[in-house]
Amino acid sequence: MSDSLKKIGIDLIRFKTGTPARINRKSIDFSKMEVQKGDEGIVPFSFEDEIKPFKQVDCYLTYTTEETHKIIRENLHRSPLYAGKIEGTGPRYCPSIEDKVVRFSDKPRHQAFVEPVGENTEEMYIQGMSSSLPEEVQIAFYRTIPGLEHCEFTRPAYAIEYDCIDPSKLKLSLEYKGIDGLFMAGQINGTSGYEEAACQGLIAGINAVQKIKGKQPLVLDRTQGYIGVLIDDIVTKGTNEPYRMMTSRAEYRLLLRQDNADLRLTEIGHEIGLISDERYNRFVQKRNNIENEIERLKNTVVKPTEKVNQLLESKGTSILTTGTKMSELLKRTEIKYEDLKEIDENRPELSAQEKEEVEIQIKYEGYIKLQEEQVEKFKKLESKKLSEDIDYNEIKGISLEARQKLNQHKPTSIGQASRISGVSPADISVLLIYNQMNK
């Protein structure tokens, strides 16, 4: 595969990753570990799903010891990661246990989460303990961990290195620049993680079909979803290590919440044919219910009656001396939407999801509006499109570094150009003038 890609002019870079050992459940002493219970309020992946009762399986927490670290340090020369046999760049956010012991030598212990691989298997996954040391060394240091003194491996930990492309060579549609019809998704684009791979596969698949149909590609921007943030990051900035999608990478994360994912994206899914009319109609009804209830709460006046003030006192918040809007009461930290049903005779029947969305939108209205104003500024720059045919060497006033980077990346908008490393605000000012003059 790598050789084939090289033959058609694709440059490859080398990354690495690792995985921990799997251990036979029957060989573990869980009494020496801390139980980690599952969540009580399960939130499904899809708004269409209803959670049915199911058996929860516990995870467990234990820790490495000084003896664990001693064995690892004594055998570092046998680790391909340290012997130079694996030279690729590893993931910053899930380092091997060798990495942790060396880089954080001041720490007396590190966490190890013992997780069931599945409900119907005896295998347990030891999260946080990936390694590339020989199997006999792994067994020795795993058995220094409380609860794992007699552990038996079903599969040892291992490390791999792999080839990936420079994702800055992709378009925002995930089509490779200069190779018509070749879409790339997942680990080959320099990302690490299941969700990261899945979201790219979705977009690349959509855009492959859009291209076959002769339609415009679907490009989600940074304000529409974490998919948009991830793809914009890797395409605009590239990556010199396996990329993970952290919430801190999204400047508009107050708007990119899990509770409003359907409000942000269902319309788009329906337009491109991935959401059925039946599901779309249910979504429209939900959206209308939320909007109508927010409007009703903003127009409903609550008077300072004895019943109202008793409720407010019981919740530890100040009483009313004059009438106020129901929405203003809900903005109080101590008050939840459900609390208001005692004093709200006209409230409609809403689903749990609808109630949650109403509460969030009202409670955080001020912060959300501020973020929406930032989004408007972002959209203005994104709407100023740049032709892929521009030769930036011919534009006077742009720094040499910016010319090189702009010619390399060929940004599709002023907004994207502003996020390229080495392109300064002064360069963007020149581009804005150039863009205006060449409309």
Structure notes:
The protein has 439 residues and is α+β, with helices and mostly antiparallel strands. The protein folds into 4 domains: 148 residues, Elongation Factor Tu (Ef-tu), domain 3, CATH 2.40.30.260; 85 residues, no CATH class; 92 residues, Arc Repressor Mutant, subunit A (Orthogonal Bundle); 54 residues, DNA polymerase, domain 1, CATH 1.10.150.570. Helices cover 39% and strands 10% of the residues. The strands form 3 sheets. The protein has a 6-stranded antiparallel beta sheet with strand order 3-4-5-6-2-7, with no helix packed on it. Strand 5 and strand 6 form a beta hairpin. Helix 2 runs antiparallel to helix 5 and helix 8 packs antiparallel against helix 9. The longest helix has 23 residues. The chain is globular, with a radius of gyration of 27 Å.
Provide tags for this entry:
439 residues, alpha+beta, Elongation Factor Tu (Ef-tu), domain 3, Arc Repressor Mutant, subunit A, 4 domains, 6-stranded antiparallel β-sheet, 10% strand, globular
Task: Output the structural class.
Answer: alpha+beta
Overall geometry comes to globular
- The CATH topology of the largest domain is Elongation Factor Tu (Ef-tu), domain 3
SSE order: HEEEEHHHEEHEEHHHHEHEHHHHHH
Mean pLDDT: 93
Which helices and strands appear, and what pairs or packs with what?
Elements: H1 2-7, E1 12-19, E2 22-24, E3 34-36, E4 59-63, H2 66-74, H3 80-83, H4 97-103, E5 111-116, E6 123-127, H5 135-142, E7 153-155, E8 158-165, H6 194-212, H7 226-237, H8 261-271, H9 277-299, E9 301-302, H10 306-314, E10 324-325, H11 326-330, H12 352-363, H13 365-383, H14 400-409, H15 414-418, H16 425-437
Antiparallel strand pairs: 1-8, 2-6, 2-7, 3-4, 4-5, 5-6, 9-10
